[in-house]
Amino acid sequence: MSYLRYVKVIGTMHVSPESREGVRRLILEEKPHGIAVELDRPRFLSMKSKQRMGFEEALKLGRRGFVAYLLARVEEKLGEEFGMMPGGEMEEAITLAEELGIPLFLIDEDISLIMAKILNAPAREKLLLLLESMAVFMPLGMGERRDVDVMSEYRMMMVQFKRRYPYLHRILVEERNEIMARNLISIVDSLREHGIKKPRVVAVVGLGHKAGIERILNSKKEVSSGELYV
After folding, report:
1. What is the spatial distance between Cα 51 and Cα 21, in angstroms, rounded to a whole number?
2. d(C-alpha 76, C-alpha 70), whole Å
3. 83: phi > 0 → left, psi -120 to 50 → alpha, else beta; which?
4. FRET partner for 49 with CA separation of 20 to 30 A, picked from 98, 111, 129, 164?
5. Are 34 and 187 in contact (CB under 8 A)?
6. From CA 202, how far away is CA 6, in angstroms rounded?
7. Strand locations in 101-185 (E)
């Protein structure tokens, strides 16, 4: 049997209020033995403390700090347009884990490793990313397009991202899919080793990761494992 039967993957839009509500509804319905979120420890601690990196602080950290600052501001702008700041669905999952006493697992790659890979991207992709990121700060006009299927637009955006940024897509999507899937496999194995024969795990990840993670989980057969793969 594949590991997918133990894991319910919910793909969310990090800036969508509907995603936050969907996470709460699924967790309450599934009553899982574990909740996994697309975070690493540094981002988890930052989210819990509500810390926000300022521009001057980012510059002190060099190129990595500037890239992190730019990406954070892009997410904030999208959050304003969709009516929810980025990470709301992750915060919902964390809150429910605490309220219900469900073990919480952080399954994403360390942000420092991700940033290092971004800085090694081809010059063409970095320049294009910078220009397009700056364009995000212009009004998006979402208020005039409420009749559009936002989820469909998001999926189309992911297809375009892969076409325009093959290197960044590989390190930001494909490689992280592998890491998160392996961590989920380890979580299932750990729960089974602790006497839970049919563990249920809810994994909250970005919409762009859902299909890839499910494909990997479905291709893996049950084995024994004791550690998270990060």
Report:
1. 24
2. 10
3. left
4. 129
5. yes
6. 9
7. 104-106
